[in-house]
From TrEMBL, chain A:
<feature type="domain" description="Prokaryotic-type class I peptide chain release factors">
    <location>
        <begin position="105"/>
        <end position="164"/>
    </location>
</feature>
<dbReference type="InterPro" id="IPR000352">
    <property type="entry name" value="Pep_chain_release_fac_I"/>
</dbReference>
<dbReference type="InterPro" id="IPR045853">
    <property type="entry name" value="Pep_chain_release_fac_I_sf"/>
</dbReference>
<dbReference type="InterPro" id="IPR050057">
    <property type="entry name" value="Prokaryotic/Mito_RF"/>
</dbReference>
<protein>
    <recommendedName>
        <fullName>Prokaryotic-type class I peptide chain release factors domain-containing protein</fullName>
    </recommendedName>
</protein>
<dbReference type="Pfam" id="PF00472">
    <property type="entry name" value="RF-1"/>
</dbReference>
<comment type="similarity">
    <text>Belongs to the prokaryotic/mitochondrial release factor family.</text>
</comment>
<dbReference type="GO" id="GO:0003747">
    <property type="term" value="F:translation release factor activity"/>
</dbReference>
UniProtKB/TrEMBL annotation, chain B:
<dbReference type="GO" id="GO:0008276">
    <property type="term" value="F:protein methyltransferase activity"/>
</dbReference>
<protein>
    <recommendedName>
        <fullName>Methyltransferase small domain-containing protein</fullName>
    </recommendedName>
</protein>
<dbReference type="GO" id="GO:0003676">
    <property type="term" value="F:nucleic acid binding"/>
</dbReference>
<keyword id="KW-0808">Transferase</keyword>
<dbReference type="InterPro" id="IPR029063">
    <property type="entry name" value="SAM-dependent_MTases_sf"/>
</dbReference>
<dbReference type="InterPro" id="IPR052663">
    <property type="entry name" value="RF_glutamine_MTase_cyano"/>
</dbReference>
<keyword id="KW-0949">S-adenosyl-L-methionine</keyword>
<dbReference type="InterPro" id="IPR002052">
    <property type="entry name" value="DNA_methylase_N6_adenine_CS"/>
</dbReference>
<dbReference type="GO" id="GO:0032259">
    <property type="term" value="P:methylation"/>
</dbReference>
Length: 267, 360
């Protein structure tokens, strides 16, 4: 066991050291939205808990667990030995494998609320939606669409990307076998890619997030070395670099981590 | 050309609604001989007009400046929209008016490229003036509202469906999941307005034997709701009828499996203080709930006790909090024993807004 690389089963590493709202600002419309939220001081925020029912159905990661987890959040990024039971027992991969309904049940949803009673009283089309994933504290929001319903779906898709970028799974480097979801996003020339795997999945495919997460898990395990990761994946360093650079959020995540390790960014 | 101009109800007819106050029961309804013809929303009109890119960009800059000049004036005045929201609305107007909205963001100001537009350039100026200077609701300007996964036609005389009301469909979905038999019965949406809930319920209960009957006292609402029902190809399953609350259901022999309604619930004395978009432009008929705002809710509650079949589901929207509690109290006292599993559900903003339950 190469101990240094062994992390707790799943640790949220805040390697993207932004305040939580700005992780939403990687697309233009959402950044307009977060500015709009800030202008309004958050003072008229109220929360609507979609989680209550999920708790009744026996979801274990309740609010108390989240508070404990929040306390560990900062220590998790500074030391990787927080192998304690208070950390989440659900792996990041499991979050991404959840159905929309299940993932939504772990989220708290905020909508912007003006002062006053709402309903028939007002006409403001405040359809922006902000989701907070309670087990990890990761938030995502969407306001581009006129319908709250569709903004909710967009925010959930965005949340999946953030979960992929920020929640790490442990990797056993010595016996490393790339998981199928990672193989799916690799180019055809990868030597570990069998001919029966189908064509390469791109960033617009909903399954890309799972593959991206597994790829970042590997990059973290090899301390940011693209050359080492490429070897594990049967690719040339150049080919893996091109894959990483093909998606903005993936590139930013890898480069943030490399910067933290003192390695120069991929370009 | 004539058909393209934006006809609107004259302001006087909005300020003095044809029907006011709403009869609680019994008043005979006079059907006008000619049914009103609903307007086509902007985004569904043919892009049969041409303007050059530079002309449109000039309009766009003018409109942006006009939105910016509002600042927080409306917010301070009557809790109306701020510039940020108006800018977002302007983007949506561009989306609806232009065949290729992305063209506008090109930075070539002397471009003579002809662009296909769904309204005349003059109309675009007028529409944005109406939005800002007259506080005409954006949804009436473009003739539609995006609501849940629907795009519904709306116009003066019809209440613009609110995002809060979307949740009634989640409550209906939950009820039919727990009791699949409800899907095959008759549902009613009373005071349907644009038809939002009736269409939503029809889609939730699916294409089995279930049907929906929708009523509204306003002929314009009936015309617009019927238009929206046809747009979603639900005319076989949703029947829109003119009349007050339960009256159009008099000839219906079947007991109701479900009943939903977003009745007027604002206390009369609060109407004048609402933001201009609402109190100057939306139909008072759809807002004014009488002295304490509860008149129509109580009427619906009494009707539910007699019209629903045992086990039938109801969901009503209220003004929130106190009204929800008063309605539940009324059910527990005045129509005691008529209902079971009576619940108050919160809206997205955490306000206890909906009262749901089942007929005993």
């Amino acid at each position: 066991m190469s101990g240094a690389n062994q992390m707790a089963n799943s640790i949220v590493r805040s390697f993207l050291r932004f305040p939580s709202y700005s992780i939403c600002s990687f697309t233009k419309p959402a950044s307009a939205c977060s500015r709009w939220y800030r202008n309004n001081n958050y003072r008229t925020y109220t929360s609507f808990r979609l989680v209550e029912k999920a708790y009744k159905r026996g979801f274990s990661g309740g609010v108390i667990n989240v508070e404990v987890f929040s306390a560990n959040y900062s220590c998790a990024s500074s030391s990787s030995n927080s192998n304690s039971n208070t950390c989440e027992t659900v792996g990041g991969k499991e979050y991404l494998s959840m159905t929309d309904d299940k993932l939504m049940s772990q989220c708290e949803m905020d909508t912007y609320k003006v002062s006053g009673p709402g309903g028939q009283h007002r006409n403001k089309r405040e359809s922006a939606v902000r989701l907070k994933h309670l087990p990890t504290g990761i938030t995502a929001q969407a306001s581009e669409d006129r319908s709250q319903h569709r903004n909710r779906a967009a925010a959930l898709a965005r949340l999946r990307t953030f979960l992929a970028l920020k929640v790490r799974n442990s990797v056993d480097l010595d016996n490393y076998v790339p998981p199928p979801e990672l193989v799916q996003i690799l180019p055809a020339k990868s030597t570990i890619r069998g001919s029966e795997k189908g064509s390469q999945i791109g960033p617009n495919n909903p399954k890309f997030a799972l593959g991206m997460q597994a790829l970042i898990d590997l990059i973290f395990a090899v301390e940011g070395s693209v050359a080492d990761a490429a070897k594990k994946l049967g690719l040339s360093t150049g080919a893996l670099s091109r894959l990483i650079l093909s998606d903005d959020s993936l590139r930013m995540a890898v480069n943030e981590y490399r910067a933290a390790k003192g390695v120069k960014p991929l370009k | 050309m004539k058909s393209s101009t934006f006809t609107r109800a004259s302001l006087s007819s909005i300020l003095q609604p044809a029907f006011s106050p709403r009869p609680i029961s019994g008043r005979p309804i006079t059907c006008s001989a000619v049914a009103p013809k609903p307007q086509t929303p902007l985004h569904l009109r043919p892009p049969s007009f041409r303007a050059t890119l530079s002309e449109l960009q000039k309009w766009h800059i003018w409109a942006k400046n006009k939105a910016s000049s509002v600042g927080s004036t409306f917010l301070d005045l009557d809790n109306g929209p701020e510039s940020t929201l108006l800018h977002r609305e302007l983007n949506w107007l561009v989306e609806d008016a232009l065949e290729q909205p992305a063209l506008l963001s090109r930075n070539n100001y002397d471009d003579a490229t002809p662009v296909s537009v769904r309204a005349r350039l003059d109309d675009l100026y007028d529409l944005w003036k109406q939005r800002i200077d007259e506080r005409r609701p954006f949804q009436y300007v473009v003739g539609c509202e995006h609501w849940r996964d629907l795009v519904l036609s709306v116009e003066e005389g019809v209440l613009i469906p609110r995002p809060e009301t979307e949740m009634i469909l989640d409550l209906v979905e939950e009820s039919v999941t727990q009791n699949a038999g409800l899907k095959n019965g008759l549902w009613a949406d009373l005071g349907t307005g644009s038809g939002a809930l009736a269409i939503g319920v029809a889609r939730v209960i699916g294409s089995g034997r279930g049907r929906v009957v929708a009523s509204d006292l306003s002929p314009i609402a009936v015309a617009v709701a019927s238009y929206n029902v046809r747009r979603y190809n639900l005319q076989e399953r949703v029947d829109v009828r003119l009349g007050s609350w339960f009256e159009p259901l008099n000839d219906v022999n079947e007991e109701l499996s479900g009943l939903v309604s977003n009745p007027p619930y604002i206390p009369t004395e609060n109407i004048e203080g609402l933001q201009a978009e609402v109190c100057k432009h939306e139909p008072r008929l759809a807002l004014d709930g009488g002295e304490n705002g509860m008149s129509d809710l109580i009427h619906l509650c009494n009707g539910a006790a007699s019209m629903l079949r045992p086990g039938g589901f109801f969901a009503f929207e209220t003004n929130g909090e106190v009204q929800s509690e008063l309605l539940v109290d009324y059910m527990d006292s005045k129509v005691k024993g008529s209902f079971f599993d009576v619940n108050i559900a919160s809206d997205f903003a955490g306000i206890r807004r909906f009262v749901t339950g089942y007929r005993a």
